[in-house]
């Protein structure tokens, strides 16, 4: 009797929790779509905000977020991937390596507002970059670094030793084996980690708060040395700081929807890249 | 050492992983253009010995090796010797087929490329290697297909082709058929017998029948030591040591 009940119970619990998670997801999505869809239009995504942001579009916030994410990727990906390759392929398994690894894991747990303060101290003031797209991108890059290192190392770890040995056995150096065989094999996993990290970074508000994001600018963001608008901050402003909160509510939902779409597109890219790689395998 | 009858040899070899001694005072010679089988129960150190010859332990920091390994007159652990050059002279085929995540063609081309073989010569070498490995007829129309789509037996023959393409002098094979079905196994065994015309082959195998089918000589190992070696026929017909006798009769494994 017990033998029969337990699997049913386990199965049921799993089903219910999964269902619950999906339920909330659907509710949130539905709420966003039903309240935000009406403000979505070509004009909304392609024009500047007007009349104290009570009308017009959110183009600067979109370009700001896209550019910011690109800078984050350019900063974090090369360093993060190199670091992960070093840790997983070259570093000896000793206390120092373990300490470094533990520190990286801890860094991944540091609240993002701390990164914001750090960016303010280092980039904005220390290095005299001012509040700018570059300062904010570098700050987000730092925030993303530990995640990229962790996910890349995870992807590299999944490649079996026999794959590395295959290259060594035909006369490849360790570097050649990593460059030509290990990294290409780990690429789908690495890219997934990268894109998930970036889509998280794209939605961050705290790290850019002190480092360069602006409430309002009257041109499409795009200068490294100037302040910029970003979707998550715009959303935050519209929903908490605006003088006519009720009036701009549909715009806030619209912004949220656009942010969600941007993140979704990023994830779609990851999916597509993985699909292409798996076809070539 | 420069005996015409010795291609590859180990002398007085001890090997430890950490504190654990895995090879104990191993001395063994492999004759040119012969197939030598390494047999013995699981964990007795066959793979470890095989991998010492092409210096696959170089990357495991906890491996410590004593003794002398020679390829003809070349000390394989000589200071300053290029390991990549050495591995080109001593090729290896692994237990589980491990093609590169590239096309069939690229799988062979890669080794040629990193060994600086002129581009113009490569297509010929690749075709020849695939023919020698008896896989050409099966793949000639789909050389651009990812190698991982091949069957297990085809993948292993491709791995052999990848190895022979570099014209090594010795080919080390670590249980190359252990993951294959009987038909693929048979094909690879035929291939091994044909390849000895051009190469010296050392093959680790679990399979007594396989050793008898392909090997001229057989070496029996037990707990890190060589217990007995000799002509395969003699060894299976009249094992001198009791352990060997029990093992080849399948009493333990
Ligand atoms: N990289 C390694 N680190 C530690 N121990 C190892 C390593 N490789 C093999 N060993 C140990 O060495 C012994 C011999 O292994 P192996 O040579 O693979 O045996 P065989 O190929 O004869 O089955 C085993 O006890 C195994 O656990
Ligand atoms: Mg083995």
UniProtKB/TrEMBL annotation, chain A:
Which keywords describe this protein according to UniProt?
A: Cell membrane, Membrane, Transmembrane, Transmembrane helix, Transport
Q: What is this protein called?
A: Phosphate transport system permease protein PstA
Subcellular compartments: Cell membrane
**GO CC field:** plasma membrane
UniProt family annotation? Belongs to the binding-protein-dependent transport system permease family. CysTW subfamily.
Q: Provide the GO biological process annotations.
A: phosphate ion transmembrane transport
Which molecular function term from Gene Ontology is one that the record holds?
A: phosphate transmembrane transporter activity
What is the gene name? pstA
Q: Which SUPFAM superfamilies match?
A: MetI-like (SSF161098)
- The main location class comes to membrane
* InterPro entries per UniProt: MetI-like, MetI-like_sf, Phosphate_PstA
Q: Where are the transmembrane segments?
A: 12-33, 58-87, 107-127, 133-150, 251-273
Q: Please list the residue ranges annotated as the ABC transmembrane type-1 domain.
A: 62-270
How does the protein associate with the membrane?
Answer: Multi-pass membrane protein
- Do you know which Pfam families this protein is assigned to? BPD_transp_1
TrEMBL record, chain B:
Q: Which Pfam family, just one, is annotated for this protein?
A: ABC_tran
What is one process in the GO biological process aspect for this record? phosphate ion transmembrane transport
Report the residue ranges that make up the ABC transporter domain in this protein.
8-248
Q: Which UniProt keywords apply?
A: ATP-binding, Nucleotide-binding, Phosphate transport, Transport
Record InterPro entries: AAA+_ATPase, ABC_transporter-like_ATP-bd, ABC_transporter-like_CS, P-loop_NTPase, PstB-like
Q: Name one GO molecular function term.
A: ATP hydrolysis activity
PROSITE patterns hit by this protein: ABC_TRANSPORTER_1, ABC_TRANSPORTER_2
* Cellular component aspect of the GO annotation: membrane
Which PANTHER family does this entry report, sorted A to Z?
A: ABC TRANSPORTER I FAMILY MEMBER 17
- Its recorded name reads Phosphate ABC transporter ATP-binding protein
Which source organism does the UniProt entry give?
Answer: Hufsiella ginkgonis
Q: Taxonomic lineage per UniProt?
A: Bacteria, Pseudomonadati, Bacteroidota, Sphingobacteriia, Sphingobacteriales
Report the gene name: pstB
